[in-house]
Amino acid sequence: MTVSSVRNVGEFKQSMSLNLKILLNYIQILTIMQGFELNWPFYVRNYLNGIAILGGGLSTQEISLDCVLENYNINISSLYAQTIIMSFLPLIIYVIAGVVLFLNYISTKNSQIVRMVVVVIVVSLFMQPSIITTLFNNLSCTKMDNASYLVKNMEISCDSDSYHNWVLISHELINDVIF
To answer: Chain-centre distance of CA 114, in angstroms?
Structure first.
């Protein structure tokens, strides 16, 4: 093997790594865009729906917390509870993966640092579009009868103190997720 072929292999790997990062960012941005309820043309909506399948993410439509919150007399909107759970889900997954990898380390005495880094990267890439979409969608208000209401739950007034507190909390969560 010559020096030039080794250099070409190194350059190829570096180029592929850069192109993969660009592709993943593109898919994430389109997945987030798909979550916004805008009046997209038909062909754009279909394209974004197809990309959203590639982008993965976690659909929050199947998760209903109304019954759980009602049974335990928790005085919080299920919409807010769902958003908080979605925001902390990656942290919960990291803890579970850390425990499993630690138990694996105890039994095999092999370092699990690389595997933990892979778990963090994959979970972060997979969950970020869902979390951001959920946070932004749960801040959307619409005007109705000279008042402003949350689009996802018309019982919540966007002029209420609870909504303004929620906006401050969401702002912190968005900063933590994005930055």
So the answer is: 23
Check whether residue 92 and residue 168 sit in a common domain.
yes
Give the Cα-Cα-Cα angle 166, 170, 174 (nearest 5 degrees). 175
* One domain for residues 140 and 68: yes
Contact 149, 141 (CB under 8 A): yes
Domain of 159 in residue numbering reads as: 57-179
Which amino acid type is present at position 89?
A: L
Whether the predicted model's global pTM rises above the 0.85 cut: no
Residues present in the chain in total: 179
Residue of 157 and 57 predicted with greater confidence: 157
Show which of 56, 82, 101 is a domain's final residue.
56
The domain boundary, picked from 39, 56, 73, lies at: 56
Q: Quick check: helix, strand or coil at residue 139?
A: coil
DSSP string, 115-139: HHHHHHHHHHHHHHHHHHHHHHHTT
